[in-house]
Amino acid sequence: MTTTDTTATSTTDATQEGTEITDASQTDTTAADGTTPPEGTGEGQESTGVAALQAENFKQREKRREVEAERDALVGTVATYQRREAEALVGERLLSASDLWVAGAELKDLLADDGTVDSAKVADAVTKVLADHPHWGQARVRVPRDMGQGGRGEPVRGVRSFQQILRDA
Fold first, then answer.
1. Other C-beta atoms lying within 10 Å of the C-beta of residue 39
2. What digits encode the pLDDT tens for the residues 153-166?
């Protein structure tokens, strides 16, 4: 007489003398959703089928983990490119384009609905940063119009020119 225990991971064979032989290679016949396979299958076929399903399930989980890791790496790469584009849009308005991030700007706040960097949102963020930290902006160097070189219009009276000095010599 053979009995199958569906909650344990082994089967027990009872012989006429009352001794038991335990087969530890038999696996649990209860599926993850609580259902059991049909009764008409043989024990060898059942264990082979369950093992094949478990192996396939393991492969699918491993593949899913690999795809998720690749996705996460690509998301990081896209975020890096988006940050660089936002910094390029900052241009010459800040001493350092990374000051945009130091001031607390978030990349998600600078993106348009389609995921691209919105130049208007970047300009608004830079304006806010400059309002909070005006010393972070580019210093405007005023260049004097007269650098002290070149012609100045009318010659100064009473001063001899170099040409006059050479003629007199």
1. 7
2. 666 677 777 888 88
